[in-house]
Amino acid sequence: MRQNIVAGNWKMNKTLREGVELAKELQNALQAEKPNCRVIIGTPFIHLSEVCKIVDPELIGVSAQNCAHHESGAYTGEVSAEMVKSTGAGYVILGHSERRAYYHEDNAMLKTKTDLALKNGLTPIFCIGEVLEEREANKHFEIVKSQIEESLFHLSADDFKKIVIAYEPVWAIGTGKTATPEQAQEMHAFIRKTLAGKYGQEVANEISILYGGSCKPSNARELFANPDVDGGLIGGASLKADDFRGIIAAF
Ligand code: PGA
């Protein structure tokens, strides 16, 4: 059956030294606490290699927050999926709404990134979600469906099973405005139904679908209690060990 997952997304925060400190703190605390879910931390590129040396991979998975949509070559400033893999990281967050909005990543580019991640043995944590105007116009289901269809539905069932989905309503990210447990469950059930329509119910049941957007220790439990919410992608609250542990403890 599918895994419950709590994944942190540090975004563009923490110097190398601060990131190493946080990874050490989490490693020590979680070793004692023995989480009931898979824990992943998504660090900036520069932290990956050091953090991978600190954490026990069975206890804490390590993720990049992006990778290039080219294999290698003259792309100044970019980091390829192969390079991410070579640090020891096992995951890559793809299609985060901040990448879509500020760096113009579209569904076609994210399809290429997904292929490169899978080719290099990385598990994509693939982010989807609507902006406020789309929800207000009642287009949120349509938007989310097209994000999945256009970036992921070319995959074989075997490859699709390697994907983790993160539903992050953009209006809930960093705003303190969390989706209600009902809104999250409604969309997660819709996503699973969409996956079942393409790959069958058995495959759909194996996919972890995370919720992201102002998830914190005080609301994680009621969000994760929903049958189709298999954990969270955590931004702000992943930057402090105590808050992140509080969310992990919701399982
Ligand atoms: P937030 O961010 O938890 O700070 O809202 C979530 C995300 O962007 O992944």
Top keywords for this entry?
12 helices; 251 residues; eight-stranded parallel β-barrel; TIM Barrel
Radius of gyration: 17 Å
Number of domains: 1
Apparent shape: globular
End-to-end C-alpha gap: 16 Å
State the assembly state of the protein chains. Answer: single chain
Ligands in the model, by name, code or SMILES, are: 2-phosphoglycolic acid
The name of the CATH architecture is Alpha-Beta Barrel
The neighbouring-strand order within the major sheet is 1-2-3-4-5-6-7-8
Strand content: 5-15%
Q: CATH superfamily assignment?
A: Aldolase class I
Bin the helical content.
40-55%
Secondary-structure-derived class: alpha/beta
Number of helices: 12
Report the strand count: 8
What is the top-level CATH class?
Alpha Beta
Describe the structure in your own words.
The two termini are 16 Å apart. The chain has one domain: Alpha-Beta Barrel (TIM Barrel). With 251 residues, it is an alpha/beta fold. The chain is built from twelve helices and eight strands. Helix 5 packs across helix 7 (140-152) and helix 11 packs parallel to helix 12. Helices cover 45% and strands 15% of the residues. Strand 2 (38-42), helix 2 and strand 3 (60-64) form a beta-alpha-beta unit. The protein binds 2-phosphoglycolic acid (PGA). 2-phosphoglycolic acid is lined by residues 9, 168, 173-174, 212-215, 233-237. Residues 9, 168, 173-174, 212-215, 233-237 line the site of 2-phosphoglycolic acid.
